[in-house]
Amino acid sequence: MKSIFTTLLVAVFSCVSIFAQEEFTVSSAEITFNFDSKNVDGSISGFESESKIDFSNITQSKFKGSVMVETIKTGNFLRDWHLKGNKYFNVDKHPKIAFESTQIVKNKNGLTINGNLTLKGTVKPITINFTKEQLQLVGTTTLFSSDYGIAIKQDRADNKVKVTIVLQLIR
């Protein structure tokens, strides 16, 4: 009787540890943005990731990913073509926008991720706040395009861009 109980107990704890495993990779992302002063919405794709998220041991996690500037879409072909040119994103010289985490903090609603954003050859620290929704992380951040050499307007405040990132997680 004791061996049956022991076997059952080991089986239960094994199942609990498998289901409690909180390690994920990022399989895809949907990245959208809103350029406030121009009231322009858009998206960017071509996502690649080397991210690993371990919710049970967050210090072992890392976020690293990029998107292809060539994929920028704002719903206006001429504007998209102009944005990809030398004056703004300069896709020929800077084909990717990249992010790499430097610190990940778990909070009650999800994660706060600090890292470096590389855009048009300029590297700046940025914070992205994510909430966990089933097998997704939904993140938001705000940046100023002029901080990265992309001055759409003269005043810094008029270059404010709100970014939303939806990451699909897989085990």
What does this structure look like?
The protein has 171 residues and is an alpha+beta fold. It has one domain: Lipocalin (Beta Barrel). 16% of the residues lie in helices and 48% in strands. The protein contains two helices and ten strands. Strands 1, 2, 3, 4, 5, 6, 7, 8, 9 and 10 form a ten-stranded antiparallel sheet that branches. The longest helix is centred in the N-terminal third of the chain and has 19 residues, at 2-20. The chain is elongated and about 45 Å long. The two termini are 37 Å apart. The relative contact order is 0.18. It comes from Zobellia barbeyronii. Residues 23-170 form the Lipid/polyisoprenoid-binding YceI-like domain. Keywords: Signal.
